[in-house]
Amino acid sequence: MSNRPLAAAGRFVPLLRAGLIAGIIVAAVAYPVVALTGVGAKATAHAVESKTRLLATALPAETSYLYAPDGKTMLTMFFEEYRQYTKLSDISPHMQQAIVSAEDNRFYRHHGVDPKGVARAFVANAKSSGVSQGASTLTMQYVRMALRDSASTPKEVQEATAQTPVRKVKEMRMAVDLEKEMSKEDILERYLNSAYFGHRAYGIYAASEIFFSKTPKELTPVEAATLAGLVKSPSQYDPASSDQKEATARRNYVLDNMARLGYLSPDSVAAAKTEPIRLRLTYPPNDCASVPESWNSWGFLCDYLKNWWSAQPAFGDNRLERLDKLRRGGYRIVLSMDPKIQAAAEDNVGTKGNTGSPFANGIVVAEPGTGRIKAMAVNRTYSLQVNENPLSSNPEAGPNVRANYPNTVAPLMGGGDLPGYQAGSTFKMFPMLAALDAGMTLNTTFNAPHSYRSEIYDGWQPSNASGAMSGMQTMWSGFGKSVNTYFVWLEEQVGAERAVRLAEQLGLRWRTDVDRDHASPSKANKWGAFTLGVSDATPLEMANAYAAVAADGRYCEAMPVSAIYNRDGTPATFKTPGGIEREIAKPRCRQVVSADAARAATDAARCPTGDTPAKGGCGGWSTADSVRGTVGRPVAGKTGTTDSTRSAWFVGYTPELAAASFISDPDNPFNAVGDGQSQIPIAAVANTLRDALKGKPVRDFIPPSDRIVG
């Protein structure tokens, strides 16, 4: 059956221009203030015409969806207004007919403004000495909604919805102009996708799902009439309230109109009116706290996605604009993580049975050559419910401050605004890599004493963790045994500032005042302790920095997504400063050090893990010699501990994956984890790499050239 009333089928007569003029005249009579405001001035006319053209192409805000890596399993949604744009062909004809019957009986007979309706409203308003009828057609209502939804400032929102004669006449003018630009079907489609139905349901897709748990195409006449009745007053006619009396009366009113317009037979309407309103309510998930419980740990990945998104200039000029785009842009976002690797990471940091400790044990796995994050897990439950957490272990936090365990949404693995944790000797990678890239060789030798006084660093005198580390060292043995005095000397040779700047090129950021001060151009070259890892870092940063070494010195920005699609299904893009259009989700990589320098650093980094370098010797022992046997394939990496073992780290990598794990108390950095727990990050990385790569072909590292071996 056609959506047009039967009485009008085949004999629709366009409204004469004289009729339109008469309609506007009636409006002016109804609102005499208009004549005094100069609404008809040329400037106003041009502004209205420009805005009308914009509304013909503008689309309402739409929900963004976050998917698992398969691109099909939905994890959660992001919205301020829950809405999914739906084509008219996917909306039940009953719904189309019901909304016309409820809101604008003469929709198919007017050209945007209904002179009869305006005259009727004028008489009613004159009798009531107020505004009892608005005479708004569907087109006029759509104009109002579209102006509101496209507003970018509070003032524009107010102007779009203000109950003033000026706004009403502008709305009429725009409705008339809009119907010259758009067909009735297009306007009806936009209207049904813009209208608010209550319960945070914006548009017919959301209303159908929230109230009846079905698609708009499946709506019955009774359900359609119920939803159409809501638009007039979503709260007054809410069928989900305890008393459905008003909702039922409004539904029946719509059904009667549908019969009067010929959409339904009188008998079917009589039968329908005897039915109770049967709801099947659905509450759509929103934001990261709504990630399904069975995938709770993925909430941290979701949270990282939000923080990453808020830092992308492609989505706006500031954080607020970017997050607004996420909640209103209708994107389809696919996470980059690998479910197999994520499961391995979760198992090996105890996400399911070890959440009751003040010490956070987390791990991040990155993919060399792309920067895509493949896993992110921590022994915490992702939850906003922190009221039952124990009190913080930090005595300076205050008497009623809750700890971050077992529940938290804090970005403990990075990607947010937390500074991270001192990363200890994992930082020795940066001066070694800088030295190799500057032309020094792996065989660079120094007779490292137990204690070393640095004249360059104003007499600072660090020492080694053990007397067994003293003696002649190369980069292989110095890195494998983590000889502090060797690396302070090496940093002197290449320059501390060069190591600091290289760390920045590999993605590290300084988030505390102390770190920023030491890293400043005027002080970086005196930051001798940098090589010992006194700066805070996050596992996200460290995994991605070491991934660049695994990728032959090619650094790729950390990225939580494999794909981002616009609402029309096309890949989301941005323009580079050079004007080149690129997909936002594509890897963004650059060569930071030479491939030979990176390969040489990897050769030395095989020593800490118990692996055998291609070109040199490790000096007989190492700090994490169990890793090679656990992983079962070529592997490189570095341990890291801080003073009194307040935190412990291990960063390890193969040609395919790089992983960084830490253990520390995020609430109180002075709450030492102790030597007994320093093996936990080593085991977490080794076991995760083993499990993630099980069944994969074994790949070896490319050896460095003889030139850089020395």
Description:
The protein is an alpha+beta fold and 710 residues long. The protein is 38% helix and 11% strand. The protein is built from 25 helices and 19 strands. The strands form seven sheets. A five-stranded antiparallel β-sheet has the order 5-4-19-18-17, sandwiched between helices. The protein has a four-stranded mixed β-sheet with strand order 2-1-3-13. A two-stranded parallel sheet has the order 6-7. It is elongated. InterPro entries: Beta-lactam/transpept-like (IPR012338), Glyco_trans_51 (IPR001264), Glycosyltr_51/Transpeptidase (IPR050396), Lysozyme-like_dom_sf (IPR023346), PBP_transglycosylase (IPR036950), PCN-bd_Tpept (IPR001460). GO terms for molecular function: carboxypeptidase activity. Residues 363-667 form the Penicillin-binding protein transpeptidase domain.
Query: What's the gyration radius in Å?
Result: 33 Å
Give the overall shape.
elongated
Instruction: Work out the number of β strands.
Output: 19
Structural class designation: alpha+beta
Please describe the biggest sheet, giving its number of strands, its sense, and whether it closes into a barrel. Answer: 5 strands, antiparallel
Question: How much helix, percentage-wise, in residues?
Answer: 25-40%
Biggest sheet, strands in spatial order? Answer: 5-4-19-18-17
The separation of the N and C termini measures 85 Å
Q: Uncertain regions: pLDDT < 50 for 5+ in a row?
A: 6-43, 129-133
Determine the strand fraction and express it as a percent band.
5-15%
Q: Quote the average pLDDT.
A: 90
Count of alpha and pi helical runs = 25
